[in-house]
Amino acid sequence: MTTSRDLTRRAALTGAAASGAGLLVLRSTQPASATPEAMRAVMRAITGDAPVRKGRVQLDLPPLVENGNTVPMTVTVESPMTALDHVTAIHVLNEKNPQPYVVTVHLDHRAGKAAFSTRIKLGDTQRVVGLAKMSDGSFWIGEQDVIVTIASCLENF
C-alpha cells in the first residue's frame, strides 16, 4: 500500500537523482584545466629549490598517436641502482590533461632497474615530462612531445 508520503519521497529522490545526473554531464564536458604553468608548479612542488638537470631520463612514447585514450609509454632512468646510488621516485607529468600528474613510481635499490611501462591517456597534443629523484637528492628530467589526433579527455576522464 502506497501513501502520499511514499510518493513524495519517491518523487524527491527521483528529482534529486535527475538533477545530480545533469550536474554530472555539465562537469564532464568542462575543458582540460592543466596548463604548462600548472605543470611547472607541480615540478616546483616536487623539486623545491633543487636544480633539475637534463638527461638520464628517457621517455619512450610514440611521437604521433591516433587516439589519446591508450598511449603506450616506457620510462627508463640511467642509474646503477646500488644502495648508495639509485632512483627513489619517477614522476610523469603532462601539460594539457585535466590534471598535470600522470603517475609516480617509488623505487629503491632492490628494484635492480629504474624502468617501468604503462599506458596513459593524453587529452591533446602536448609535452610529457619524466622527472627522476635520485638517492642523493638530485633531480633529472627527460621530455617528449606527442601529437594526438583524437583527444581522450573529451570523454569522461
Question: What topology emerges from the helices and strands here?
Answer:
Elements: H1 4-28, H2 36-47, E1 52-54, E2 57-60, E3 64-67, E4 71-77, E5 87-94, E6 101-106, E7 115-120, E8 126-134, E9 139-150
Parallel strand pairs: 1-9, 3-9
Antiparallel strand pairs: 2-4, 4-7, 5-6, 5-8, 8-9
Would you mind describing this structure in some detail?
With about 160 residues, the chain is α+β, with helices and mostly antiparallel strands. The protein folds into two domains: about 1-30; about 35-150, Immunoglobulin-like (Sandwich). The protein has helices at about 5-30, 35-45, and strands at about 50-55, 55-60, 65, 70-75, 85-95, 100-105, 115-120, 125-135, 140-150. The strands form two sheets. Strands 1, 3, 5, 6, 8 and 9 form a six-stranded mixed sheet that branches. Strands 2-4-7 form a three-stranded antiparallel sheet, with no helix packed on it. Strand 8 and strand 9 (about 140-150) form a beta hairpin.
